[in-house]
Input
Amino acid sequence: MIRPLFRTRPEAMLKADASPVTIADRAAEQAMRAVLHARCPDCGIAGEEFGIDRPDAPWRWVLDPIDGTRAFLTGRPIFATLIALLHHDEPVLGVIDQPVTGERWLGVAGEATQFHGPFGGLPATRPCPALAAAELSATSPEMLGPHRPAWDRLAAQVRRVSWGGDAYAYGLLALGQIDLIAEADLKPWDWAALVPVIQGAGGRITDWSGAPLRADGDGRVLAVGDPALLPAAVAALAGG
Amino acid sequence: MIRPLFRTRPEAMLKADASPVTIADRAAEQAMRAVLHARCPDCGIAGEEFGIDRPDAPWRWVLDPIDGTRAFLTGRPIFATLIALLHHDEPVLGVIDQPVTGERWLGVAGEATQFHGPFGGLPATRPCPALAAAELSATSPEMLGPHRPAWDRLAAQVRRVSWGGDAYAYGLLALGQIDLIAEADLKPWDWAALVPVIQGAGGRITDWSGAPLRADGDGRVLAVGDPALLPAAVAALAGG
Output
């Protein structure tokens, strides 16, 4: 549903509801809902485009068909389809899928993360106990909004910064390519699938205070490949 | 030479001369030099790692084995190998090659740009006569340095901004996925190969005043998919 619409060349100025990303988003969410409805009829399903089915079900799927709409719209093959399964609000399964490159990360609570794709990569974070050695990433300066000064404090202590990537960057953290991601303005469907993937690869994903992510949190997310990096990152963000 | 070193997992803290990007950079430049030396013995060759051979030759190859070292180092498959052929300082042939995905752009002065790759895309820029409709891109805020205020004036007038991409983003402009790129701190080997690719796809690439790029210029580069966009972009950058 997504791949045929990638790199189609729409007019520069289109109404939002006619853009290829919107068409792909809706078609992909409907396709996933149809599969889940048939195979898991008792599960809840929450998606950005078509709302929530059975919100009180103990098992709920959370879908984000295209995470990284700007990457999709500009032809960069680093957006992702995100699929999470929650058990009483806790993410127990997460998929990061790149439908154009064919890369896929699968995380299951308590198990080692799996990764398959044509470009190589092993699903294990790398040791990086000091901020001074860390590769930091964030999708865009704009998403940081009022949290930019705190983020800049963290960035001032790391080795290097790179931009772009959305959920795909968390996948790269799970491959030991990035050490640290600090972002703001994420919705639960943006991060739920990332939790089992990162934990199963040896990393940690929390809010900016180091506490577990919550659906009613403020949208700030901090991920580290090496858990030893977490206290220093939290301190830098807090101004410590 | 490059592909086997992509997504290898080095220690977080390595000396610069032992990093996989440095090893790949040198090996790829040597491989290209060997081919060009054998096939074009009278041509000059300039590369970042191994200097200039025959600098006074009328035909000179300019090589940048890995443009986008941060993308390479963080496992993002959107770095590029750049190959340009200059005739008396004028770029007459340019290649943007992504060795991991297998995408390749080929531009030849006076001819239509060619593009091949597994993810689709057609080598023609798209119409976008107004800044208000334009998709603007730049590799990173950091590269803009003292030119950030001028860039922000431009960004304030466009539809949307996306970050990351290096030379690959210019390839996406040549596919009609991005309308406008404004960057600073580029070296001649960063932009020489882009000139024939973008011109052959219907776009323009200039300095920030709209004048042709020169090897002794200040490193600021402006690319537009629709030539009609150039005066407004130049005016916005100049504060007009």
In short: Chain A has a mean pLDDT of 94. The first helix of chain A runs from residue 20 to 39.
